[in-house]
Amino acid sequence: MQPGARLQAAIEVLAEILNRHRPAAQALSDWGRAHRFAGSGDRAAIGNIVFDALRKRNSLSFLMGAETPRALALGVLAHAWGEAAEVIDAMCAGGRAPEPLSEAERAGLIAALDPDAPDWVRGNYPEWMADEFRAAFGAEAVAQGAALAERAPVDVRVNTLKADRAKVMKALREYAPEETPFSPVGVRVPVRARHHKAPKIEADAAHGKGWFEVQDEGSQIAALLAGAGPRHQVADVCAGAGGKTLALAAQMENTGQIYAYDADKTRLRPIFERLKRAGARNVQVLPAGNESALEELRERMDIVFVDAPCSGSGAWRRRPDAKWRLSPQALEKRHAEQRAVLAQSAPLVKPGGWLVYVTCSVLPSENDAQAAWFLAEYSDFAPVPLAQVWRETLSASFPGSAATGNGDSLLLTPASHGTDGFFIAILQRSA
Ligand SMILES: C[S@@+](CC[C@H](N)C(=O)[O-])C[C@H]1O[C@@H](n2cnc3c(N)ncnc32)[C@H](O)[C@@H]1O
């Protein structure tokens, strides 16, 4: 396909997403099915325009003076990919390509973002979240939002049950991998720019052999800081597809026991295949949604890991459409779910044990506010300072939290740590 035809296709897919509220991945795959002549390079280029438009929707529509799919797609080429205005102009020749540019569009291609534009425009987050962003980050709100609007690298966690870092680095050498800065079991495949395809790491034979899992470094750090070790008894109560379960199983060197539970059996379903591939043998998957199975763990767990349902705001780099789908009502529902799962988990922790509360959100209402609520409700729990846990677990200096807080919790963010947004609080039951 010619660049102009790719641009037109991206505009059509964006219209499906923005006007008909279709999830981005689904709209793109439907487009692919209906246009079988398109090659993988075309699909990658179209997908990249679509995802970058969603990542930077507010700033691009401000620059282009319109929030139409066409304005956003043109804005991506000019402002995110640095394409010259004349090149874009030449792409818009009609036919399979977009119609010729208007004067207003030409002006938008060379516009500069007004430094006095609202924070939520410059930071590319929804306007209704501006207060939360300010509460979370103060004067850094724009920079933190902007970093969540960039592309993310592909991080993998080395499965130490089957491989080591050097072996995985070698297996992935065609992707120019690097060691992740914080996680000792992380390998990072750098971001590709503009129209270039993201590497399909999971298609690699080493993945089939269980040597690694795709997992953001923030997620790896959350599992590491939980402090699971040999012979521990661990409940992973929001196990989902098992990303954290697998990390915990490897840390425990296949000893002790992990009880993996989730309220939703569809989400839990992939865990069986993943456990097998990883060679994890210390995991018992509890029947989904059966709370009485959790009852049996009462006061027996060294660690209860709560990877709570959340807005997913920390993962906006990877799922930018989620940013615009989130509503205040949906966020309130997540708050209630978080309290429910914390209340369900507290009784499982043995005296002296840890409840590890994790979200992939950067919003204080899902993070520190929920930890504070828990501590007010459960007076036999106290926070364990994260700086201390970090030094003991990762044998490295503590990089500090991105949140303005009291140091009892840790917020990782793309702007501050180069990871997805992750929140971790460790709450210890009195002995
Ligand atoms: C962030 S996801 C878990 C991701 C998973 N731990 C991983 O690392 O791949 C949150 C999960 O919590 C589950 N969930 C929500 N409410 C729950 C509850 N009350 N009890 C158990 N699981 C719950 C959801 O079904 C969802 O799978």
TrEMBL record:
Span of domain SAM-dependent MTase RsmB/NOP-type: 144-430
One GO biological process term: RNA methylation
InterPro entries: MeTrfase_RsmB-F_NOP2_cat, MeTrfase_RsmB-F_NOP2_dom, RCMT, RsmB-like_ferredoxin, SAM-dependent_MTases_sf
This protein's UniProt keywords: Methyltransferase, RNA-binding, S-adenosyl-L-methionine, Transferase
Keyword ATP-binding: no
Classification via Gene3D superfamilies: Vaccinia Virus protein VP39
GO MF assignments: RNA binding; RNA methyltransferase activity
Positions annotated as active site in the UniProt record: C360 (nucleophile)
Domain of life: Bacteria
Residues that hold S-adenosyl-L-methionine according to the record: D262, D307
Pfam families in UniProt: Methyltr_RsmB-F, RsmF-B_ferredox
Family designation: Belongs to the class I-like SAM-binding methyltransferase superfamily. RsmB/NOP family.
Protein name (Swiss-Prot/TrEMBL): 16S rRNA (Cytosine967-C5)-methyltransferase
Organism of origin: Dichotomicrobium thermohalophilum
Lineage, uppermost ranks: Bacteria, Pseudomonadati, Pseudomonadota, Alphaproteobacteria, Hyphomicrobiales
